[in-house]
Design brief:
The chain is mostly beta strands. It is built from one helix and seven strands. A hairpin with a 4-residue loop joins strand 1 and strand 2. The chain starts with a strand and ends with a strand.
Length: about 100
């Protein structure tokens, strides 16, 4: 599990033809509200071979878990396909999913 409690992430880039996704928590500059040492750099989370994507444009304070059991029924068929991993992203008491 990965936690980024005090960062906001945006769906930064998605390329259908290459099945590639980037979620980015952009850095803040010293003159921006909320600036501190913990957010003076970008954080990029990259997913390749994206087969399923169900996330909002912006996520505030996320936890990322790789699901190996208790997989939602709508995603169960991905479990049997070679190489896919199912990720649950928790943000603001909501769950969303990426299969990559």
């Amino acid at each position: 599990m990965y936690k980024f409690i005090n960062r906001s992430f945006k769906l930064w880039a998605y390329t259908v033809s290459h099945s590639f996704l980037i979620l980015r928590s952009p850095l803040k500059f010293p003159d921006q509200e909320g600036y501190n040492e913990a957010n003076n750099f970008n954080i990029d989370i990259e997913f390749s071979a994206v087969a399923y994507l169900d996330i909002p444009h912006t996520l505030h304070g996320i936890e990322i878990l790789e699901l190996t059991r208790n997989i939602p029924i709508k995603l169960a068929h991905y479990k049997t396909q070679l190489g896919y991993k199912i990720f649950e992203l928790r943000s603001e008491n909501k769950n969303c999913y990426i299969v990559a």
